[in-house]
Amino acid sequence: MCLNIQRQHKWRNRTTTNTGWRMELDENSVTGGTKGPNESPSAPSDTPLLSHFISRPPYFRYLEEWGETFCKERKKRLKKIKEECRGVNNSGDPKYCSGDGYHCTGDAKYRNDNFVELDCSRCAEQCTYYKNWIKNKKNEIKKQKRKYEGELQKLKEVNSNDGDNTKFFKEIENRSFDQFLKALKHCKNDKGSEDDIYKEDKDNKIDFENIPQTFSRSTYCKACPIYGVTCNSSSGRRRSDHNPCRNNEPQKAANTVGEETPITILIDDGSNHSATNGATDGSTDGTTKDSYEELKNCSKKYSLFKGLIKQEWKCQKKKGVDQCKLKNFSDDIDDDEHIVFNEFFQR
């Protein structure tokens, strides 16, 4: 926010250009804005007045800015991911890429033998950026939630001695951390969008009461559906069809079942299963927490092994597709429960 909130006083700065447009910032608005020659200044109903904003305790002003910035950045990043992973190809036809850079269309044999496609490489690139970014934000929001609860308790203890804080405290005393963020301007989901009928868009909406969804890798970045998808070409798609790609059904004739093979891997998911390792403030020290004792011992000695977890997969050929299933899948931790073997092998 381009505003020094520590040194505010009543002032108005107006610059008028040759076209008649002007920029305004005054005590009645936190954000200011661009006004046309015939428009009068006004603040959106959900934008706090400057006088109200600067009277709030510093932490809550900071949290508002943190939340607004997070929500705007998340929407911008997911819009880019959707374009790269669910956009259109050079022919103008819809595409469906996985977060690993694979085309999800085509028959089982093609996808069993397929490698990362050039047309989907930017999807993989954007998903990698997003995964690292959202992982850091997930760690941040856990800290913010603990801080919020502590600061709210402080307000409760001192509100009778501070008029400004007393008024603000009454506004939020029954508001949870999730509700506080949900009320922010940029953290409200758009209503009435034509994409509301598209389930995948619903699964990527901001919901601070659903941390796994809001801070997940995003469904746009998941592996391909096991049996692939079929996308209608732009010429054969109705204008009202906002979801041009549909999951395929398994082939009824392909009943061959191969031998099941267990595969164990180690990954660094960054979440550490929310382990505190003895800490009382909810923090983590990055040490691997797993029933695999050898891994735990290594994590104590070598930083390379810190934060690793063990995953157990079972892979076999079913209904014509070589596929793997993760044992003890957790939506809060893991990206995919089912994945085609070729994509799993090349991760």
Describe what is shown at a glance:
By secondary structure, the protein is α+β, with helices and mostly antiparallel strands.
Properties at a glance:
3 domains, alpha+beta, 3-stranded antiparallel sheet, 10 helices, 347 residues, 4-stranded antiparallel sheet, coiled coil, CIDR1_gamma
Task: Give a description of the structure.
It is a single chain. The chain has about 350 residues and is an alpha+beta fold. It folds into 3 domains: about 15-50, no CATH class; about 55-245, no CATH class; about 260-275 and about 285-345, no CATH class. The protein is about 35% helix and about 15% strand. It is built from 10 helices and 9 strands. β1 and β2 form a beta hairpin. The longest helix is centred in the middle third of the chain and has 38 residues, at about 120-160. It is globular and about 70 Å long. Keywords: Coiled coil.
Unreliable stretches covering 5 or more consecutive residues: 1-45, 192-197, 271-288
Which structural class best describes the helix and strand composition?
Answer: alpha+beta
Gap between N and C termini: 40 Å
Beta strand count = 9
Q: Main β-sheet, in a few words? A: 4 strands, antiparallel
How many structural domains in the coordinates? 3
**What is the percentage of strand-forming residues?**
5-15%
Average pLDDT taken over every residue = 73
> In which order are the strands of the major sheet placed?
6-7-8-9
Question: What's the helical proportion of residues?
Answer: 25-40%
Q: Using only CA atoms, what is the Rg?
A: 25 Å
> Number of helix segments?
10
Shape: globular
